[in-house]
Write a structure and sequence with these properties.
The complex is a heterodimer. Chain A is mainly β. Chain A contains no helices and 11 strands. The N and C termini of chain B lie far apart (40 Å). Chain B is globular. The chains are: A mainly beta, B mainly beta.
């Protein structure tokens, strides 16, 4: 199975900050990478798919980049509603796998 | 609008089975694959299984092989996940999720709609 690691595992930031989260795959996964946001007690919400495609309705402050094994989710300017946990997920092969998550909380 | 509505919370004893349902609406049920993902308390997301609603073909994570069965009822647009031989480690919120597709049926490689989650508690 393809393993995904994320860094950092958590971070503290302020409203307006630029935040970058990294996801690394144990092998090349082409462009089959998605990012999800999960608030406390809520279902995950799709943000980005195909590495850099923004899901409909998701604010443009979210962006994704990367290739091969290294990928990045960037939030250009944190809004209060962005404090949540973020997961990357690979769709390259089964079993589908998720990264362990990055918790973004308020500094 | 697309909706996935799951059945309510369950409490089961170790060794028992649980069957969770996920009713889809707002789209053509047979056109999209559906997945189950679970999340233990305070933990991350874990993929379990996928079904192609048209063919009924399934793919399961090896970890759950032999214990999980994913089925669907196309007449009611309902997906089911049955997990047997429950143990305390199976205590989790179970989510169904739809896999996005292009118009020609090719996967968009994303889980674009999620159910609200079903808490399954395994306790003696």
């Amino acid at each position: 199975a393809i393993q995904l690691t994320q860094s950092p595992s958590s971070l503290s930031a302020s409203v307006g900050d630029r935040v970058t989260i990294t996801c690394r795959a144990s092998q090349a996964i082409s462009s089959a990478l998605a990012w999800y946001q999960q608030g406390p007690g809520k279902a995950p919400k799709l943000l980005i798919y195909d590495v850099s495609s923004l899901e409909s309705g998701v604010p443009s402050r979210f962006s994704g980049s990367g290739s091969g094994t290294d990928f990045t989710l960037t939030i250009s300017s944190l809004h209060p509603e962005d404090f949540a946990t973020y997961y990357c997920q690979q769709f390259n092969s089964y079993p589908l796998t998720f990264g362990p998550g990055t918790k973004v909380d308020i500094k | 609008q697309v909706q996935l509505v799951q059945s309510g919370a369950e409490v089961k004893k170790p060794g028992a089975s649980v069957k969770v349902s996920c009713q889809a609406s707002g789209y053509t049920f047979t056109s999209y694959s559906l997945h189950w993902v679970r999340q233990a308390p305070g933990q991350g997301l874990e993929w379990m299984a996928m079904i192609n609603p048209t063919a009924g073909s399934t793919t399961y994570a090896q970890k759950f092989q032999g214990r999980v069965t994913m089925t669907r009822d196309t007449s009611t647009s309902t997906l089911y996940m049955e997990l047997s031989s429950l143990r305390s480690e199976d205590t989790a919120v179970y989510y169904c999720a739809r896999e996005g597709r292009f118009g020609d049926g090719e996967s968009m490689e994303k889980l674009d709609y999620w159910g609200q989650g079903t808490l399954v508690t395994v306790s003696s």
